[in-house]
Design brief:
Blueprint (H helix, E strand, L loop, with lengths): L1 H4 L6 E2 H8 L3 H13 L3 E6 L2 E6 L6 H12 L1 H9 L5 E7 H7 L9 E8 L3 H15 L2 E7 L1 H5 L5 H8 L3 E3 L8
Parallel strand pairs: 5-6
Antiparallel strand pairs: 1-3, 2-3, 4-5, 4-7
């Protein structure tokens, strides 16, 4: 349900859903049939292929989507993933995704922009962005800045523009007090 409702602009085949979720075709078929019956998803046939997508025209869509966003969306997934990375002091989602999350109207963003404040290893940060992109099924762009640059009032134009728009802070949880 999270995969389809959090990407309402996308349609899925049953095979794509099974692969993305790493479950059997039978399990996907059973759940899809239930969700279509509950009017949460819609399905159509294209030859022998069944195409599944979110029903955005029902009263259920918005509250279910909001619930899924706080449990399976970019904020909880990126919080969990970035919490595993050393030398990250703060992290934020910015740009169009943050604006939509804060209620600004507009089209569903195709990507998620993340600002990482700290000095994490660039290769590990790249790997984490790739992992997040796979898990969220949308591109995750990570921009790293030093704590000094982030704290500076005379910041570069990029940081000024980031600060002027909505920011969604990720509350990172470090183990062992790190």
């Amino acid at each position: 349900m999270a995969l389809t409702l959090l990407s309402p602009e996308r349609s899925w085949t049953l095979i794509e859903l099974a692969k993305a979720l790493d479950v059997s075709h039978t399990a996907v078929l059973r759940e899809v049939d239930r969700l279509i019956g509950a009017e949460i998803l819609t399905g159509k046939r294209l030859g022998r292929t069944r195409i599944i997508s979110a029903r955005t025209d029902t009263l259920l869509y918005r509250p279910l989507c909001d619930l899924l966003l706080v449990t399976y969306g970019p904020v909880p997934r990126l919080t969990m993933i970035l919490s595993t990375l050393d030398r990250v002091e703060e992290a934020y989602i910015y740009g169009s995704w943050a604006a939509r999350y804060e209620g600004e109207p507009g089209p569903i963003p195709g990507d998620v922009d993340v600002l990482v404040v700290g000095q994490p290893d660039p290769d590990e940060l790249f790997d984490i962005a790739e992992q997040a992109s796979r898990e969220l099924h949308r591109e995750v762009n990570v921009h790293r800045v030093s704590p000094l640059a982030w704290a500076s009032e005379s910041a570069e134009p990029f940081l000024t523009s980031v600060r002027e728009r909505p920011l969604v802070r990720l509350t990172l949880h470090k183990e062992n007090g790190a």
